[in-house]
Amino acid sequence: MGTYYLDIETSGLDERASKIITVQYQALDRNSGAPAGPLVILKEWEHGEREVLRRFVENTDVSSGKGFDFVPVGYNLGFEHRFLSRRSEMHGLPTINIRDRPMMDLHTTGVIMNSCEFRGSGLDRMTGKAQNGSMVSRWYEDGDYGKITEYVEDEAREFLRFFAWLCKELPILHKRFASTIARP
Questions:
Q1: Phi-psi region of 157 (alpha: psi -120 to 50; beta: other; left: phi over 0)
Q2: How many helices (H) and strands (E) in the chain?
Q3: CB 95 within 8 A of CB 89
Q4: Model pLDDT for residues 23-54, shown as the tens digit of each residue
Q5: Alpha helices in the chain (DSSP H)
Q6: CATH of region 3-178
Q7: Rg (Cα) of the chain, in Å, rounded?
Q8: Please, are residues 162 and 149 in contact by the beta-carbon 8 Å criterion?
């Protein structure tokens, strides 16, 4: 099974009018959540959006017919799905569909950890992530690509710290819960 951290950054929020400016992914150990490979950041400003998407498909098993070859782990993966599928189609590439496979979206966990409130459940509020992504499109317009890269690296680091913590703590919580179940 290939478990991968997956995230993207975009120039805006509309998948028809905005483009993907980075795709970042990293192989993870499925039991511990620890990194099992380097963080790969594919950058639109270096290769163009079509090439970033092509390389993502070529260098991963995201488009294999076997769902467990690429299991994305992320925060609000519906956003990634919308952009990846729409933008790959727009560039005449095979459609990148991450919803047709197993995936782990930790946003739901963040909402539950936030007293089941959506407001305040962003990754920046749930972890030590320095900020939300609201400045990425501005940095992109200004050509401040170094700031985008720093942001992506910080976000990946904080997400992976959160995921590894959950991989360690949730099995303990499950054992506590299981002890409350009356069995015949």
A1: alpha
A2: 7, 5
A3: yes
A4: 999 999 989 999 999 999 999 999 999 999 99
A5: 44-47, 49-59, 77-90, 107-113, 123-126, 136-141, 145-178
A6: 3.30.420.10
A7: 17
A8: no
Instruction: Determine the Cα angle at 63 with ends 74 and 95, to 5°.
Output: 90
The whole-angstrom separation of Cα 41 and Cα 89 is: 21
| Distances in whole angstroms, Cα of residue 112 to Cα of each of 46, 48, 74, 121, 125 | 39, 38, 16, 9, 13
pLDDT grade for 64, boundaries at 50, 70 and 90? confident
Phi, psi (deg, nearest 5) at residue 89: -60, -45
User: In whole angstroms, how far apart are CA 151 and each of 8, 32, 108, 157?
Assistant: 12, 24, 23, 10
- CA 129-148-151 angle, to 5 degrees, is 10
Percent helix, strand and coil across the chain, each to the nearest 5: 45, 15, 40
* Structure confidence by residue, pLDDT tens digits, 84-130: 999 999 999 999 999 999 999 999 999 999 999 999 999 999 998 98
Model-level pTM greater than 0.70?
A: yes
Placement of tokens 């930790």 in the chain: 106
- In single-letter form, the type of residue at position 106 comes to L
**Amino acid type, 83:** F
Distances (CA, A) of 37 to 29, 111, 136: 9, 29, 25
